[in-house]
Write a structure and sequence with these properties.
This protein is mainly alpha-helical. It has a single domain (3-140), classed as Bromodomain-like. It is 74% helix and 0% strand. The protein has 5 helices and no strands. It has helices at residues 3-29, 36-58, 63-86, 88-92, 115-140. Helix 3 runs antiparallel to helix 5 (115-140). The N and C termini lie close together (11 Å).
Length: 141
C-alpha cells in the first residue's frame, strides 16, 4: 500500500466534506438560496464525499480517476460561475438562471471570495490531489 496515495485520498475526501458542509451551512443555516449554477456544483461535489469516503476506507485508489473527472467538470462550472460574478462584461449579459441570479453575491470576503470561488477552490484541491494520487500509484507500480 502506498502511504502517500493514502494521505492524498484522505485529503481529497476532507476537501469534498468541507465543501459539502460549507454549502449546506450557507443554504440551511444562513438561508442563502442556491442559484442554478450552485446546484450544478452541488450535484458534482456531494457524491464525492461518499465516493471518496468509501474509497478511503476500502483503500481503493482507482477512485482518483473518477474524482478527477467529477472535479474537473466542477472546476469548469465554478470558474464559469465565478467569471459571471466578477467579469463585468459577462455579468451584464448573463442570462437569468432562475429565481436567484447567478451573478448575485451573498458573500464577498476580501473583495474576491464568493461562494463560487469557494467551490472553485474545493474542486481545484480535489482535482490536484486526484492527479497526485494517480501519479503516486503509477510510481508504485
Amino acid at each position: 500500500m502506498n502511504k502517500k496515495a493514502d494521505t492524498l485520498l484522505f485529503l481529497a475526501w476532507a476537501a469534498s466534506l468541507t465543501a459539502t458542509l460549507g454549502s449546506l451551512f450557507f443554504s440551511e443555516v444562513m438561508k442563502y438560496e442556491p442559484c442554478e449554477l450552485c446546484w450544478y456544483q452541488r450535484i458534482l461535489m456531494y457524491p464525492l464525499v461518499i465516493l471518496l469516503g468509501v474509497a478511503y476506507v476500502r483503500k481503493d485508489f482507482k477512485i482518483s480517476f473518477y474524482s478527477l473527472i467529477f472535479s474537473g467538470i466542477g472546476l469548469a462550472v465554478s470558474l464559469y460561475h465565478y467569471s459571471l460574478q466578477k467579469i463585468s462584461i459577462l455579468s451584464e449579459s448573463a442570462p437569468s438562471c432562475g429565481r436567484v441570479p447567478c451573478t448575485g453575491e451573498y458573500i464577498n470576503w476580501m473583495g474576491f471570495i464568493t461562494i463560487p470561488f469557494l467551490a472553485l477552490a474545493g474542486f481545484a484541491i480535489i482535482f490536484m490531489v486526484s492527479l497526485l494520487t494517480l501519479k503516486a500509484l503509477k510510481e508504485d507500480h
